[in-house]
Amino acid sequence: MASPPIAAVRRAKGRDGSTTSDQKVKESELELRGLVARELHDRVAQTLTGMLVDLENFKTEPVGWEDVQRRLDTVQDSTRQVLRSLRELLHDLRGEETFSDTFVKSVGDLLARFEQKTAINAKLTVLPGWPQSITAPASMNLYRIVEEALTNVRRHSGARTVRIVLEPYSDDQLVMIVGDDGRGVQSDSSSPAGMGTVGMKERAVILGGELRIESAHGDGTTVRAIFPRSGLMPGPGRAHSSALDS
Description:
The protein is an alpha+beta fold.
């Protein structure tokens, strides 16, 4: 659920000085800060980090002018993506709807771009029972989880294949799975989670679900996000922006 802009929160505080109102203002401000931090990390920081890594690697490669032109095109595309993400974030903070494509189509387009850029085979499977439409907040949060999971696949896994599966988990639950065949990592619950992992888990909690990461050396990594069906599907009067393409 989108948080109100900071200015609106402060206006609300000015209208009512009660203890209960102050507590609600503080909670709203904390919620907004968390939202902005997640969005900046998922939409902007990851792309900029990828650009820096690509440029560092490029500096050590023997290249000709055509290679330079291709890399400049890639940097240009990434810069446009950062600008687009910042504009989307500003629109979100103003309460404007920006997620126009269907969720399934958007994920399919994301995988196509990912495959083209990384040469990692990417496949999306939608099984019977996945709802024909999900709410706008669900679309946005699920999409960001997929983005972060793919970033981890590209940067850390050494995978040749990544697969996303959308399917029922039980009669009243749905699951989204992102799995790769990479090198995997040894899970260590005592180690602090990175910002990306924290962000994915927070997005799952926002939708009333939970997110698990299963990984072991040599066995790849699987991100499994489980949600109540009612937390994703639109009800009466609720906006829905994601219809399953036929």
